Amino acid sequence: MYSLGIDIGSSSVKVSLLDIRSGKCIASSTNPGSEAPIKALHKGWAEQDPESWWDYACKGIKAVTADNDSSKIVAVGITYQMHGLVAVDKDMRPVRDAIIWCDSRAVELGAEALQNIGYGKCMEHLLNSPGNFTASKLAWVKRNEPDLYSKIYKFMLPGDYVAYKLSDEVATTRTGLSEGIFWDFKENERADFVADYYGIEKEKFPDIVPAIGIQCRTSAEIESLLGIPKGTPVSYRAGDQPNNAFSLGVLNPGEIAATGGTSGVVYGVTDVPKADSASRVNTFLHVNDTNSAHRFGVLLCINGTGILNSWVHHKITPDLDYATMNDVAAKAPAGSDGLRVMPFGNGAERVLENRNVGARFSGLDLVRHSTEHILRATQEGIAFSFRYGIDIMRNLGLDPKLIRAGKANLFLSPLFRSTLATLCDANIELLNTDGSLGAARGAALGAGFYSDEKEAFATLATLETVVPATSWKEPLEQAYSAWKKELEQI
User: Fold this and answer.
1) I need a labelling partner for 456 at 20 to 30 A (CA). Which of 135, 298, 374, 443 fits?
2) Are 74 and 3 spatial neighbours (Cβ–Cβ below 8 Å)?
3) pTM here?
4) Is 251 exposed, middle or buried, given 0-12, 13-18 or 19+ CB atoms closer than 10 A?
């Protein structure tokens, strides 16, 4: 029996087949072959066509089932880029391109909402400022595109849209509502007061289904198109960062996960709802939250991390692959001889209270510094931004001594992971999983093919444990102090 996992990212869509019995990946496919386009019609905007996600998903499903029997698929799980907005009309066609997670056009609306709803009520009930999340993005459409807004029948998150395409059923989850700042943590119900403030009609909300559990079933059309048997349960749905944590077995209070894709994320689980006073890190419902055992995820997100490394690769060292870049970077000393990089250039940063400070290089010495310094300083700057956010998380009671991550993206770099471990004084465990496999594992659990979480993660293996580099500690701390001082002066 197979479980199918679909990971709807902003760079690509990855599909994986998990053999439920062995816990091994049977096949995987990533589409498109190069990074998916993001439309930026104005500064700070970021949009994608929702139909492109579905097209990439279909290509991936066909690829992984080309040599594997699709009739053996017994569960489907979906993970997706968080905080996006997909709005459809009564014919279930998108009325506009999706406004995705890194779009910052709604920052001012969120700030207005915080003031007008009241700081105290937002912190007590939402655990966040309305900020630049899905609720504020929908309000932006209402304010600036009223003709399009009037056509909206339902609004969804990216994963909700792909689930609809599989099943013809429109739904979302409590975790998804919390990601959009539509969840009242104090009352444990949908935060209709946010919708009332923005003038969003209640009938535009999808119905609520469990994040782990049978949500809907695939249609006859999907059986004809993709070979997945009609009635196969879609039984798991989670935003990419809660799912990344789930994929790594980060389910209980005190456990920490990290990822370094287009953005950089640290995600910690707690059983106590807490809010950062400036909403620099954000609290959502974790994917395994229940009324009897609450689980909350505290999310640190830095928009401009992996995308900065990609920019350096394409613009500065286009003739080097990433592995060679890592080797060259390692030739420079810890601290990069005073060269500092600010990895903020991909929109407003929540960790910087929604400021868009841009990316920058400073301390450049044209005699002393070379390509190896630029490459190392880039990775160190990204690690410094992680440390900056983790220090904020520590104020909420989360103190990571062990960080789990998939061996992918930035965590493929020995230099980056050793730098991060040293800065945080924490071991890093690298595991053999990714978002699509996590979604597949979650789907098998949600459909009842695993009896519990322990059985679901029994086959998850640690590939490597990274420990702090003692000899790097002093130069990295000095470099971080200089970096932080410069950041706070911007």
Assistant:
1) 298
2) yes
3) 0.88
4) middle
